[in-house]
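Researcher: Sequence recovery benchmark, item below. Answer with residues only.
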């Protein structure tokens, strides 16, 4: 097998594996009776359910009626029961207004403010999936889109990465805009959507990176501060049980502080540190 053929075969296998994983996750979500679940979180994200806030953590179920809010620099990825993948960017509020899947999908998602991305799978069941903002409604099927709403300007922008999207403004009926791959439209209060505009590929990729949580595995860097003010940086994996032990974890400056006593209490003590910083990139 030539190098080019081998590479193509590897890419094909990777795509098949990814599809199988998504199907398995979707089946698990649907079996649990939830609309979806959180698969990745970067930063501070919360869910409001029944008027009460709950922490948004990996594996937490998403239910119809949930409101997801991300803080500054925070992002969250969700997998819905029909296989839709949602990425919500920083400083955003996103509502699961309506969700039904059995097996035809009927979903209404609402972006109150901020930015997000949705990859909605193709289906022969003619799903009814809509994304709404204060000034626009986007109907999608088998589509990858980016959606954003700026409260300061009152403008919605819809960008189609792949597929086709129909965009309307409910308060200004009479004209719809059809977006194909790489196109965008802007919708203001009381105005019809602007004609489609071609988006530069680089800008689209930057928008995707802006809402997509990191896929890198955490890299842990231990900084040992010894008595006398000398500092030694040690790049190594945290010894088993240290990161979760002793209840000595507190957040500080984007990292985690481990209580030195967690190490001192080991038998025998590996060393006598003053403080240890575990930085997660």
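Model:
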């Amino acid at each position: 097998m030539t190098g080019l053929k081998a590479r193509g075969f590897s890419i094909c296998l990777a795509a098949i594996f990814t599809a199988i994983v998504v199907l398995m996750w979707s089946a698990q979500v649907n079996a649990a009776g939830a609309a979806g679940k959180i698969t990745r979180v970067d930063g501070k994200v919360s869910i409001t359910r029944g008027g009460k806030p709950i922490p948004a953590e990996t594996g937490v179920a998403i239910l119809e009626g949930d409101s997801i809010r991300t803080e500054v620099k925070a992002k969250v990825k969700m997998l819905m029961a029909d296989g839709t993948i949602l990425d919500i960017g920083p400083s955003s509020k996103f509502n699961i207004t309506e969700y039904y899947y059995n097996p035809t999908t009927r979903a209404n998602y609402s972006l109150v403010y901020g930015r997000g991305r949705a990859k909605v799978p193709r289906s022969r069941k003619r799903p009814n999936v809509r994304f709404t903002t204060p000034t626009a409604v986007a109907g999608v099927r088998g589509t990858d889109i980016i959606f954003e709403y700026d409260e300061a300007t009152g403008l919605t922008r819809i960008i189609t990465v792949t597929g086709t999207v129909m965009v309307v403004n409910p308060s200004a009926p009479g004209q719809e805009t059809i977006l194909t791959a790489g196109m965008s439209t802007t919708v203001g209060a009381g105005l019809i959507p602007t004609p489609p505009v071609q988006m530069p590929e680089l800008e689209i990729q930057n928008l995707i990176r802006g809402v997509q949580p990191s896929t890198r595995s955490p890299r842990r860097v231990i900084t040992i501060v010894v008595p006398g003010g000398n500092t030694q940086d040690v790049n190594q994996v945290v010894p088993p049980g240290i990161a979760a032990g002793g209840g000595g974890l507190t957040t500080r400056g984007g990292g985690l502080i481990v209580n030195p006593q967690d190490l001192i209490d080991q038998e025998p003590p590996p060393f006598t540190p003053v403080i240890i910083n575990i930085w997660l990139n």
